[in-house]
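Help needed: design a sequence for this.
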């Protein structure tokens, strides 16, 4: 017999599982379908920064959405631990965006006027905070409330919490096709069928085909990123450091994650020697003493970028019940809670802030002058 769900989510990364968590918590019976194992694609590769202020130059709808999402992590930290016993690794030590040139310093000082709660730290004080930092750093903007999480733990916690609320998970099954007939979607997996009242596309960098097959312009730009981690004898600092072309994220287990390259259009899964060498070069220009650090690991992942740099979150312009939640590029960990919350509110028909609806709307992908295809069979 074909199983029916109120919502089927395609993709078991942090975005799919966050949506499942908020939907099942609201009593909407939901299944996530994942073609491999949950949390092993872009989510697994992330450093986990919650860079509300590194990702915004001024306030506005996107900044507010980032703020909301990071604040949700404060409550999720406790709620997910209670439900699943998983520690999502929420760091409260803040982030510092550093200036490596006079031009960057001026840009950061302008940013400080946009966000008066951020604190400018002069170079000597910064070097007391961050031992072995070169004098190349001309100061930094301290973002006290921004931090990071452990992305794999956060994804796993969302997944298990959704299951605790009655959600279901179908792994090792690929969604091949989705069709709508009257008000019901049929979701064709490689092994069987499911039916649903709503379908959410949360397939990360592989989401592009779902725009194309539903008559929209494909906005997805898969963008490869490579990282490595090192271990230092002592843990010299706890703040995440964000430079113009690399970052360092200290994890509670003593790893320092250093990232990341960014290559638009590259979907390959291997880590290149050249990519790692490039980030090492950037790192050593600010931390020459770290050449002797113990290299711990290296990896890569493909970010779900978009052509206009904005995620796509919302209902298809003509196929009611079909939702997108993708294109989070380098902010999917930061934005997972707010995205899950937003999509759950959309599906349960709660009021949505119009500026948020507009910013992320799939309606912006309508092909001009062409009739929009609506699926049915
Ligand atoms: C190197 C690197 C560093 C990053 N650092 C940060 C950071 O510090 N902070 C931050 O906020 N973000 C960061 N990101 C970005 C973040 O990782 C992504 O935005 C986020 O993981 C996207 O989550 P997702 O669930 O959309 O995608 P994914 O995690 O890729 O999940 C999508 C899932 O869909 C599945 N799928 C695809 N097609 C199908 C199908 N047809 N049927 C079934 N399943 C399917 C895939 O197998 C996959 O598991 C980083 C990314 C990279 C690569």
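Sure. Designed sequence:
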């Amino acid at each position: 017999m074909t199983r029916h769900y109120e919502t089927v989510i395609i993709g078991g990364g942090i975005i799919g599982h966050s949506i499942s968590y908020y939907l099942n918590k609201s009593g909407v019976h939901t299944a996530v379908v994942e073609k491999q194992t949950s949390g092993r694609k872009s989510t697994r590769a992330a450093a986990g920064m919650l860079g509300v202020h590194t990702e915004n130059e001024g306030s506005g709808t996107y900044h507010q959405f980032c703020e909301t999402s990071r604040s949700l992590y404060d409550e999720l930290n406790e709620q997910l631990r209670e439900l699943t016993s998983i520690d999502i690794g929420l760091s409260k030590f803040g982030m510092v965006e550093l200036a490596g040139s006079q031009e960057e310093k001026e840009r950061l000082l302008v940013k400080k006027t946009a966000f008066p709660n951020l604190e400018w730290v002069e170079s000597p004080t910064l070097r007391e905070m961050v031992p072995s930092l070169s004098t190349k750093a001309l100061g930094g903007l301290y973002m006290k409330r921004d931090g990071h999480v452990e992305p794999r733990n956060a994804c796993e916690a969302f997944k298990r919490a959704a299951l605790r609320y009655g959600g279901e998970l179908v792994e090792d099954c690929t969604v091949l096709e989705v069709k709508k007939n009257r008000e019901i979607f049929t979701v064709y997996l490689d092994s069987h069928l499911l039916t649903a009242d709503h379908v959410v596309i949360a397939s990360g960098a592989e989401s592009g085909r779902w725009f194309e097959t539903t008559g929209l312009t494909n906005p997805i730009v898969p963008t490869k990123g490579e990282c490595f981690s090192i271990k230092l004898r002592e843990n010299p600092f706890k703040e995440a450091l964000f430079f113009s072309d690399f970052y360092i994220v200290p994890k509670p287990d003593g790893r320092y994650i250093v990232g990341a390259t960014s290559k638009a259009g590259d979907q390959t899964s291997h880590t290149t020697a050249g990519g790692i060498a490039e980030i090492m070069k950037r790192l050593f220009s600010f931390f020459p003493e770290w050449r002797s650090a113990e290299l711990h690991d290296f990896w890569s992942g493909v970010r779900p970028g978009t052509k206009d740099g904005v995620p796509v979150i919302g209902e298809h312009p003509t196929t009611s019940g079909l939702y997108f939640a993708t294109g989070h590029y380098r902010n999917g960990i930061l934005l997972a809670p707010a995205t899950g919350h937003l999509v759950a509110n959309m599906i349960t028909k709660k009021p949505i802030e119009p500026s948020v609806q507009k910013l992320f709307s799939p309606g912006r992908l309508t092909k001009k002058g062409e009739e929009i295809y609506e699926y049915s069979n």
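Confidence is low (pLDDT under 50) at residues 369-377.
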